[in-house]
Structures are given as structure tokens and as C-alpha cells.
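Q: Here's a chain of 188 amino acids. Please give me its 3D structure as C-alpha cells.
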Amino acid sequence: MTRLFIALPVDEAIRNRLLPLHRFFCDWSGIIKPVSPSQFHITMKFIGECEGSTARAIEEAFMNIPVDTTSLEYTIKGIGMFPGEKNPSVIWTGLQTDLTRIRKMLNVIESFTKEFGIKEETRSFIPHLTIARIRKGRKLTSKIYNYLEQYRDTDFGSSMFTRLILYQSKLTPKGPEYTVRKELPLAQ
């Protein structure tokens, strides 16, 4: 079985602006599991576990997804938590972009994966960048909440999405490892 997802990677300049948060999360690793900055991305479609033949078929067809291949400007701004601040499981930064274009891209990707028997996502798309997860059974301290509060409205910068990537995800005890299977360039 091969675990796949489709995502827009975040560029290095934005990742660098998020490093202070990452370092803070690492200091609280008993409570928070930070996402490695090298793995920051906006998930467009989590495909999940696929049989080898289905994974190969998706990979072979990926470069022909009929998405708008012009680059897409975005801004990473603010801090939030899922499902909410009271008992969060995920810490994220917000994504500001052309929502019409990104939803159109999302619809094209959904149609593409549906051809391979992948279920359509039923949850609403909330544009975000996951930067950390809360360890199961752990609670954030007031010190962590206070630290995050100072970034609530911070603008971490703007850039352009220039690639749509089909990733393979391998779960390990140290966290997921992502491998690029295919990369569809978005022109600049």
C-alpha cells in the first residue's frame, strides 16, 4: 500500500519566517509535535492508502491534471487551532489567496482522484498550513497560549505557489516522511 496526497508546497522564505514558532514548539515537544519546516505544505487532497496499481496509475496520470497552471499568489497570516482553542489538536497558520482559483483547483483535483475510486472530501476546505499537532492526551499550557497569542495576526509573508506535488507519505515513529512522486510546475 502507498499513502498519497496532493499539495502545494510553501516556499523557503515563508518557512524561514515560521522558524521561531518551530523552535518554540521543539522546546515543548512533550506536548507539541512540530511539523518540520521542510515539510510545510497546503494539502489539496489527502488520497490515503492505495494499492500499488492504483498508486502507479495516479502517478502516471498526475501530469495531465487539467489545473490552471499559472502561479498563484498567497499570504501566510495569523495563528489558529483546530477544532478550536479550548481543546486543540492542530496549530495552523492561515492561508490568504484567490479563493475562487484555489477552489477551482480543488474541484479539478477531486474530479481527477474520483476517476481512481478515491472518495470525494465531504468537509469544507479551510485554507491553512499545519505547523504543529498536539500530542494525544496532552493540553496546552497558559505559557504556550500566551506565546501563540502574540502571533494571532502576524503576517508571515507572501509568495507564489509554483508547483503542485503528488507526495508519498510514510509514517514513522519520528513523524511522517514525504517523498515527491510527481511535480506539476505552475508557471510564474
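Q: Can you summarize the key feature?
A: The beta strands are 2-9, 32-34, 41-50, 72-82, 90-97, 128-134, 155-161, 163-172, 175-185.
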